[in-house]
Design goal:
Layout: E1 3-10, H1 14-32, E2 36-41, H2 44-51, H3 57-65, E3 68-73, H4 88-98, E4 103-109, H5 122-125, E5 129-135, E6 147-150, E7 156-159, H6 166-181, E8 186-191, H7 197-210, E9 217-222, H8 223-232, E10 239-242, H9 244-258, E11 265-269, E12 275-279, H10 296-308, H11 313-328, E13 331-332, E14 342-343, H12 346-358
The protein binds nicotinamide-adenine-dinucleotide.
Length: 359
């Protein structure tokens, strides 16, 4: 059965990097029999310019009907003066909530060839391959009540609510165990169960869910220690499971261990495994149109799509292998360039990866 991918290139470097990811998909289709079709849609500033909204109904329908969404990036200075309700970022948030993409998967991988791009010592980060799984639609960012008020003493106060239902915890825990099962089978759940009742429940439900996955080794860590361990010895982790706020912070910390934003993909999944796949970086207005953006994060997002939605582990491995082989030969876009390597542009990097894919 042919599966459908909605392709939303967005703004800035979005169209440049998505074009390279599409070359990879075309090759998988033509040479490896991958049964997918793609359909392009508008999102973000590009959608606002064309239709007056960053998230047109046609895009929502396209995304709802598709099996997966491939997204470039949204935003840029051109749209910053706009009202918040029509800013490009609203398109992205709208998509996440309409599709109920509650599970955010962010791998932090440091390719051995790029070990000097990290600010940490090579021996600490070489070979790093951590997957952070963050709950994306609940917790303190959405909990009610929230707001600001004056208290009885007439002093201003602000308040938010950290709340998770058992079912919200259980569904993200299932995803985490399933991902761990496809990797090194070690899952570390992050909480603050010594202080917060909500995360005490988190721990309890994760332990219960773990009974369905006896092959996965489960451990727990308080978030303050996890932050320290990520910098001290990040290679101890395989998969980390976190709530929305802890994950927000820890996943950025983990991303920086690798030192190169142009290399990191992400996936956001719903309960049926449908997903939106995108690089973690933004629209990079400073380099837009220069032909130097690194397309690897977007191509790695295609590999994640193959692994988590299209269930084609073999082709996912093949794409990742093609990227590794290209880096092995010394080709680098300017963001990951170092002396002694060969500097290439966006299109050339895409072509080189496709060549390795076919080899
Ligand atoms: P950014 O990620 O766009 O850029 C940060 C820096 O990293 C820039 O110097 C940029 O040139 C560089 N960079 C990013 N991607 C790169 C790539 N593939 N290759 C080489 N270099 C790359 O973050 P920003 O500058 O803070 O934000 C720019 C715009 O993007 C803003 O409008 C912001 O709201 C938006 N944004 C969108 C997303 C998204 O679409 N998911 C995420 C973050 C930011």
């Amino acid at each position: 059965m042919t599966q459908k991918i909605a392709v939303l290139a967005g703004d800035g470097i979005g169209p440049e990097i998505v074009a390279e990811a599409l070359k990879v998909l075309d090759t998988l289709r033509a040479d490896f029999g991958l049964a997918v079709e793609t359909e392009a849609g508008l999102i973000g500033g590009a959608a606002y310019d064309a239709t007056g909204t960053p998230f047109p109904d046609t895009t929502l329908k396209l995304a709802q009907q598709a099996d997966a969404v491939l997204l470039g990036a949204v935003g840029g200075p051109k749209w910053e003066p706009l009202d918040y309700s029509v800013r490009p970022e609203r398109g992205l948030l709208g998509l996440r909530s309409e599709l109920e993409l509650f599970a955010n998967l962010r791998p932090a991988i440091l390719y051995p060839q790029l070990v000097h791009a990290s600010t940490l010592k090579p021996e600490v980060v070489a070979g790093l391959d951590v997957m952070i799984i963050r709950e994306l639609t609940g917790g303190i960012y959405f909990g009610q009540p929230r707001g600001r008020r004056n208290n009885a003493q007439g002093e201003r106060e602000g308040y938010n609510t950290l709340i998770y239902s058992e079912s919200e915890i259980r569904r993200i825990a299932h995803i985490a165990f399933q991902v761990a099962r496809k990797r090194d089978k070690r899952l570390c759940s992050i909480d603050k169960a010594n202080v917060l009742e909500c995360t005490e429940l988190w721990r309890e439900v994760v332990v219960e869910t773990g009974k369905d996955y006896p092959e996965v080794e489960l451990s727990h860590m308080y978030v303050d220690n996890a932050a320290m361990q990520l910098v001290r010895n990040p290679k101890q982790f395989d998969v980390m499971l976190t709530d929305n706020m802890f994950g927000d912070i820890l996943s950025d910390c983990a991303a920086m261990l690798t030192g190169s934003i142009g290399m990191l993909p992400s996936a956001s999944l719903d309960k049926a495994g449908k997903g939106m796949y995108e690089p973690i970086h933004g629209s990079a207005p400073d380099i837009t149109g220069k032909g130097i953006a690194n397309p690897i994060a977007t191509i790695l997002s295609v590999a994640m799509m193959l692994r988590y939605t299209l269930n084609n582990e073999a082709l996912a491995d093949r794409v990742e292998q093609a990227i590794r082989a290209t880096l092995d030969e010394g080709y680098r876009t300017p963001d990951i360039y170092s002396e002694g390597t060969a500097k290439v542009g966006t299109v050339q990097m895409g072509d080189l990866i496709v060549r390795k894919l076919r080899a």
